[in-house]
Amino acid sequence: MNPHIKKIQEDIESLRQQIINHKVYAVINNLDDLNVFMKYHVFAVWDFMSLLKALQINLTCTTVPWFPVGSADTRFLINEIVVGEESDVDQLGKRKSHFEIYLEAMKQSDADYSCIDLFVQTLKQTKDIQISFEKANVPAAAKKFVEYSFEIINSGKAHLQAAAFTFGREDLIPGMFHSIINDIDKKIPNSISIFKYYLERHIEVDGGHHSHLALEMMANLCCTDEDYWNEAKTVTINSLQKRIELWDAVYDEITLVK
Predict the structure, then answer these.
(1) Kind and range of the H or E element at 55?
(2) Band of the pLDDT at 129, cuts 50, 70, 90?
């Protein structure tokens, strides 16, 4: 393994463990609790796609006339990830992005998706993310999470975008959470089958093949530039801390109503 990648993984392990062992999972006991989780988590699913597209714009040619941009190896890596994330298959074999599959899961479980829906629709119309946050009344922790992602996106620096995308975004949902989902699915199988499929697909595609591609992309982008690797580490740590804050907010909302 690339020694710089190994060093980052070692340095962020305590933060990753805080997320994997977060207290939020233990308080998700029923469909209502899961729906609160999804109301927040959907924003992380959406901004993950935004980070991905920012990388594609940075690392490939997305304008006309076309010209070859950067390394063909890096172009291949990012384009393969885009295909899998933006046009995967749902339970019925229909092409959908992972974000669209997640929205379908929210609709099936009667989760409140009005916030993310209004946010996205407003952003399409206004192109102003702050106006969209305000109009949709996005929860504060979700807003801060997305704002940090867009701070990285707007930096225009591919190695920072790749760091936020790669480290700690692909494999943070623990086995405990999957067990909880399986238990809920057994009780109400017609309510969260799509969400269960999303998680299984997430593990199969994102946590395996795509995570290896993303690590390879990081190595290609940072090479031997120590400044790049240090900046990537800082972004990674900040991204994980934002995830912890997001999970804290989910925990607080679930326990508040109990």
Answers:
(1) helix 31-59
(2) very high
**Which residue is associated with the tokens 């046009």?**
87
Question: Tens digits of per-residue pLDDT, 240-251?
Answer: 999 999 999 999
List residues bridging with 74 in a β-sheet. none
CB 146 within 8 A of CB 115: no
Residues 32, 33, 36: CA angle, nearest 5 degrees: 90
What is the helix (H) or strand (E) element at residue 206, kind and residue range?
Answer: none
- What's the pLDDT tens digit per position in 144-167? 999 999 999 999 999 999 999 888
Checking if the pLDDT of 202 tops 80, the result is no
Place of tokens 């409140």: 112
H or E element in which residue 90 lies: none
Distance CA 9, CA 1 (A): 11
The span from the CA of 139 to the CA of 44, in Å, is: 12
Q: What is the pLDDT of residue 208?
A: 60
d(C-alpha 37, C-alpha 27), whole Å:
10
DSSP 132-194: HHHHHT--HHHHHHHHHHHHHHHHT-HHHHHHHHHTTTSS-S-HHHHHHHHHHHHHSTTTSHH
Task: Give the separation between CA 100 and CA 190, rounded to whole angstroms.
Answer: 18
Q: How far apart are alpha carbons 127 and 129 in whole angstroms?
A: 6
CA angle 35, 38, 40 (to 5 degrees): 120
Mean model confidence pLDDT for the chain: 91
